[in-house]
Design goal:
Blueprint (H helix, E strand, L loop, with lengths): L5 E4 L14 H27 L5 E5 L12 H20 L6 E5 L12
Parallel strand pairs: 1-2, 2-3
Helix pairs in contact: 1-2
Length: about 120
């Protein structure tokens, strides 16, 4: 039997457009990928993570969760929702020895040679 030590939710989808220009599919796909997907992943893997004290869930957020930018409102809303779910999980899963990490890469890409 192998222990599960970490789960990383890193998938993201960003559609830069005014809200009135977005189709329902553009809105719903961002919500599915950025918020509903990580929720499902957490629900599936939490029972396995509970078996390993000190394990962790790492959710990748975005500065857009707190910064209101034009043409990125839906994306920002999904990342703010991910922040809220992460805060709740920090308490809920923490009671079982699972750590919740919310990683906001912020300016990290502009500080690397990959930018």
């Amino acid at each position: 039997e192998t222990d599960l030590w970490a789960v990383v939710n890193n998938a993201a989808m960003l559609v830069l457009a005014k809200l009135e220009w977005m189709t329902d599919a553009m809105v719903e796909s961002q919500i599915q990928v950025n918020l509903v997907g990580p929720i499902h992943v957490c629900r599936v893997f939490l029972p396995l993570l509970y078996k390993t004290r000190g394990s962790r869930i790492i959710n990748i957020t975005s500065p857009c969760a707190e910064t209101r930018l034009p043409m990125a409102g839906v994306y920002g809303a999904t990342k703010a929702g991910l922040d809220t779910i992460s805060d709740s999980l920090r308490i809920e899963a923490g009671a079982h020895g699972v750590n919740m990490v919310l990683l906001d890469p912020g300016e990290i890409l502009s500080l690397t040679p990959f930018a």
